[in-house]
């Protein structure tokens, strides 16, 4: 069972990495091409802003989930680390629950937005893509953040979740 969960988790991590890299590359390529056309030909791509905006939403939310996975988010633990262990654990538990509730509210809000956009059938002006497709990526990204946060909650509460620069480097000369 652990092996299956690990394989699924590795697949999710691969997906987060791939989506983050591809969306960043696509944003840079489209923006670069837009600048070249604007200054060389004096014409622009009318749909570039729609695509870049949608890709930025995907990159931000999936990238935030990836940030939780690779411990890239800033955490202020000074107070909790200087308290007696039970008090520090209690403080970290409270902040973890608050963070989880916030992430769940974000996921729910994204779902409501997705649902409302699907009912209205709203489409983007140039490409005629339904906004519900764009908003579905918001639901996916925020759900991935919830997944990644729940995965680290126990270690975080116990004070075992450390940023890469705080971990002991073993075997480094």
Q: What is the secondary structure topology, with strand pairs?
A:
Layout (H helix, E strand, L loop, with lengths): L1 H39 L7 H22 L8 H4 L3 H36 L10 H28 L15
Describe the structure.
The structure is a single chain. The protein is an all-alpha fold. It has one domain. It contains 5 helices and no strands. The two termini are 38 Å apart.
Short description:
Helix content is 75%, strand content 0%. It is mainly α and 173 residues long. It has one domain.
Characteristic key phrases:
173 residues; mainly alpha; 75% helix; elongated
Structural class: mainly alpha
Q: What is the number of E strands?
A: 0
Provide the succession of SSEs. HHHHH
What's the main sheet like? none
Radius of gyration: 20 Å
Low-confidence stretches: 168-173
Instruction: Tell me the overall shape.
Output: elongated
Overall pLDDT metric: 89
Helical residues, percent? over 70%
Total of DSSP H or I helical runs spanning 4+ residues: 5
Strand portion: under 5%
């Amino acid at each position: 069972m652990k092996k299956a969960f690990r394989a699924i988790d590795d697949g999710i991590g691969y997906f987060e990495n791939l989506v983050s890299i591809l969306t960043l590359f696509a944003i840079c390529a489209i923006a670069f091409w837009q600048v070249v056309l604007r200054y060389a030909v004096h014409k622009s791509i009318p749909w570039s802003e729609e695509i870049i905006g949608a890709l930025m939403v995907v990159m931000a939310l999936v990238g935030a989930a990836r940030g939780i996975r690779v411990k890239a988010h800033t955490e202020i633990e000074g107070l909790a680390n200087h308290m007696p262990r039970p008090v520090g654990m209690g403080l970290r538990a409270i902040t973890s629950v608050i963070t989880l509730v916030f992430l769940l509210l974000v996921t729910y809000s994204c779902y409501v937005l997705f649902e409302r956009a699907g009912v209205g059938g709203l489409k983007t002006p140039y490409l005629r893509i339904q906004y519900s497709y764009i908003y579905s990526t918001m639901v996916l990204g925020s759900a991935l953040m919830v997944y990644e946060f729940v995965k680290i909650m126990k270690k975080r509460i116990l004070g075992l979740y450390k940023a890469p620069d705080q971990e002991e480097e073993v075997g480094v000369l």
